[in-house]
Amino acid sequence: MKIINIANIITFFRLFSVPIILLMILEDKLQIAFWVFLFASITDTFDGLLARKLKIVTEFGKILDPIADKILIFSVLITLSYKNFIELPIVIIIVLRDFIIVLGVVLSILLKKKINYSPLKIGKITFFFQTIFIGMLLCNYANFFNIEILIKYFGLLIIYLTFISGIWYLIRWLKELVVNL
User: Fold this and answer.
1) What is the pLDDT of residues 40-57, one digit of tens each?
2) CB atoms within 10 A of CB 156
3) Lowest mean pLDDT among 4-18, 61-75, 114-128, 129-143
């Protein structure tokens, strides 16, 4: 099976959109940043659906897709924090959760323990809402709509989901590590 296919090309487009989004945020061109981010977020849905529908799922794509997702989310969140559009503790919580998950994967590899690396449904839901949250931030600060109060409560939801999903990953992996001892 070929490594490069239409689904992986779409994922690459998402990756290549990141510097554009960051530059637009840094230059206070938030309307453009919003639309490019929206496009990039939509590609996340289509690359996976297309790969499954056309039966062109590759191991490379299984690795590239979540990496592209994390690069998009983390870099945009960090840049928004740098521009004071989001509080740094929220960014730290989101990044720390994924760092702990990656640390668990690395630890299992080092210990030569077989664990399930597939994403949990709560993890996918968390990522979806994180994406919506970033879109809301960009929409608000691009002056499309004033949704400051909605952002405040949605931010609390993001913190909650991030903690809960992180705990679920830890529980699953700790169970698997104990079973495989």
Assistant:
1) 999 988 888 888 898 888
2) 11
3) 114-128
Instruction: Please enumerate in sequence order all residues whose Cβ is within 8 A of that of 168, keeping only pairs 6 or more positions apart, or say none.
Output: 120, 122, 123
Place of tokens 């981010």: 37
Nearest by Cα to 71 from 101, 45, 104, 95: 95
- Check: CB of residue 33 under 8 Å from CB of residue 90: no
pLDDT over 60 at 167, yes or no: yes
* Amino acid residing at 120: L
Provide the sign of the torsion angle of the four alpha carbons 101, 106, 111, 115, taken in this order. positive
Q: Is the pLDDT of residue 159 over 80?
A: yes
Q: How many CB atoms lie within 10 A of CB 155?
A: 16
Q: And the tokens for 1?
A: 């099976």
Q: Is 90 exceeded by the pLDDT of residue 170?
A: no
* Cα(148)–Cα(154) distance, integer angstroms: 10
CA distance 34 to 118: 30
